[in-house]
Here is the input.
Amino acid sequence: MRGRVVAIEANPRSAGRRDDATGSTMTSRDDWAAQTTSDAIAADEAPRMDGEVALVAGGGLSGPLGGVGFSIAWLCARSGASIAILDVDQEAGERAVDAIRSAGGDAAWFDVDVTDDGSVAAAVDGAVQRFGRLDHVADSIGGGGAVPIFDIDDAELERVMNLNFTSAWRVMKHSQKHLSHGGSIVTISSGATEGRGPAMPYTIAKTALEKLTVGASQTLAPRGIRVNGVRVGMIWGAFAARGMDEDMREIRRRNVALQTEGNVWDIASAAFFLLSDRARWVSGQVLAVDGGGFALKPTGAAGSAKPR
Ligand SMILES: NC(=O)c1ccc[n+]([C@@H]2O[C@H](COP(=O)([O-])OP(=O)(O)OC[C@H]3O[C@@H](n4cnc5c(N)ncnc54)[C@H](O)[C@@H]3O)[C@@H](O)[C@H]2O)c1
Here is the structure.
């Protein structure tokens, strides 16, 4: 459908009818379309975040393929939000800010190391001071830990948990204080949560992140704040491109049910929906964006197809 949808006017002749059985006044058939299409979701073409502020941890623009965080920041900026980019990489942070400003948006970079509590507190405070409010929070930082679980020491396990789980708890903890009714938070998990190896430390940390996401949604629901997550499938992006050649890339593609490769925009699109008020009644969910999951393989299970 093209063009702005205009709510259908109510028919002035249609008076409410009284239902004798219940004694309540029923709307007439003529009123129905007018009433239902006046809902913001029915009336608006795209979700808008004008006048709002979105904080994106890991929103720096790093590498030619970009990252999930930058893509989320970009979509929020395009919908009118001012963007606080929190990133440890100054160059990537400034590149993201430049890209958003060049497209007419408003953004600023804040130095942060999410593995350090004081650093997160200072960056969140800095963002709130700079923009005067906070409405949406996305945390895209994570990675590493794709190693056998018994081949690492305490320090390495702690490092992986810190980067993928504790850091998100810190970002939430410091930013939720500034959110009010209608505010939203999105975390970025991984399809590795469904795995049984070989990347167990990462799997465990991202599973903890998903539990945090769902738990935080319950904690914050009474304040009207929503919390959701996106579980990233085997997309081609900075994260994957760093450690993979074209052969591996093709194997990944064929292992996806839809037999296609996703990218950072597929993830950002879902995250943006969850951040926006289009998802105003969605909270405590982790949405897998993964091309339908793994492609079916012959397993030998009763009823399964024979290998060709
Ligand atoms: N790309 C994939 O294939 C894939 C698959 C599954 C899950 N994920 C998850 O998606 C998320 C984003 O992945 P990506 O590929 O966009 O990553 P990315 O590396 O492109 O972006 C991450 C950003 O976080 C910043 N950062 C890293 N450590 C930081 C720290 N300690 N403090 C502050 N900033 C820090 C980096 O500078 C970078 O700008 C991660 O949580 C990752 O685990 C990605």
Summary: Residues 48-288 form a domain with the Rossmann fold fold (CATH 3.40.50.720).
